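Figure 3 (text version): C-alpha cells given as input.
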C-alpha cells in the first residue's frame, strides 16, 4: 500500500512538471516571451482560474510591450491570497503603469500613470516589507512624478506670463532705459546691481511688470555662479528589475 502511495505521488509530480505553465516558465527564462505567452494561454484552457496564470501572462505582456493587456492581467493577479505573490504582482503592475506613463503624449496622462505606479509600489512594500527593488523603484518614480509636476507648473506659469504680457501696455521710456542699463550691468558681470535695478523699476513703473522674466534669468545666473548644480539625471533603467514569472 505504501508503495502505491509513493508511486501515485511521483505520478502527480510528473504531471506537475509536464504542465504547460512550466514549459512557459522555461521559455520566459530563455527570453522567448512570445513563446512563453503561448504556453500560458494554453495552460489557461485547463486552469482558467489559476491566479499564477494572470500573473505570468501579465508579465509576458509587459515584456512584449503590450502594457494595456499586461495591466488587465496583473490587476487580477494582485488579488492573489498569497501576500508574497500579490506583492510581486503589484510590483509588476506598478512597472506597467510607469512604462505607460513614459509612452503617454500628454503630461496629465504621465502624471496619472505615475501616481498609479507609486500607489502599487507602496502596496507591494506593504505586502512584503523586505521588497528592496520596490523600495528603490518607488524613489525613482516619485522623482519622475515630481519633475513632471514641476514641468507642468512651469508651463502653466509661462503661459500665464505670456497672457499677462499681451495685456500689459508698452514699456515706458524710463523702463526701457532701466532695461538697457540692466543688460549692460549683466554684461559687465554686475548681476546683483542689474537685478536690483529691474526690481526697483518694476515696483515703481506700472509698465515694467513684463521685465520680471529678465529678473528671473539674472537670478538664475547669480545662483549658478554661487555654485548651484543641476539635478542629477534619473536612471530609470532598473525599474523593471525583478520582473519574473512564478
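Below: residues designed for each position.
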Amino acid at each position: 500500500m505504501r508503495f502505491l502511495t509513493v508511486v501515485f505521488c511521483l505520478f502527480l509530480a510528473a504531471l506537475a512538471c509536464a504542465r504547460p505553465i512550466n514549459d512557459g516558465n522555461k521559455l520566459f527564462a530563455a527570453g522567448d516571451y512570445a513563446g512563453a505567452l503561448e504556453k500560458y494561454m494554453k495552460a489557461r484552457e485547463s486552469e482558467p482560474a489559476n491566479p499564477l496564470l494572470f500573473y505570468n501572462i501579465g508579465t509576458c505582456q509587459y515584456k512584449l510591450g503590450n502594457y494595456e493587456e499586461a495591466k488587465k492581467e496583473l490587476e487580477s493577479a494582485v488579488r492573489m491570497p498569497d501576500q508574497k505573490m500579490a506583492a510581486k504582482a503589484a510590483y509588476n503592475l506598478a512597472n506597467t503603469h510607469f512604462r505607460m506613463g513614459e509612452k503617454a503624449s500628454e503630461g496629465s496622462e504621465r502624471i496619472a500613470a505615475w501616481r498609479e505606479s507609486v500607489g502599487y509600489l507602496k502596496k507591494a512594500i506593504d505586502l512584503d516589507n523586505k521588497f528592496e527593488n520596490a523600495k528603490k523603484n518607488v524613489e525613482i518614480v516619485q522623482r519622475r512624478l515630481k519633475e513632471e509636476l514641476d514641468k507642468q507648473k512651469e508651463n502653466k506659469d509661462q503661459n500665464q506670463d505670456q497672457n499677462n504680457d499681451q495685456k500689459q501696455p508698452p514699456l515706458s521710456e524710463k523702463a526701457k532705459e532701466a532695461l538697457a542699463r540692466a543688460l549692460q550691468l549683466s554684461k559687465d558681470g554686475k548681476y546683483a546691481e542689474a537685478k536690483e535695478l529691474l526690481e526697483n523699476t518694476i515696483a515703481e513703473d506700472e509698465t515694467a511688470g513684463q521685465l520680471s522674466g529678465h529678473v528671473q534669468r539674472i537670478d538664475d545666473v547669480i545662483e549658478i555662479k554661487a555654485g548651484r548644480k543641476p539635478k542629477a539625471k534619473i536612471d530609470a533603467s532598473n525599474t523593471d528589475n525583478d520582473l519574473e514569472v512564478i
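The longest helix spans residues 132-167.
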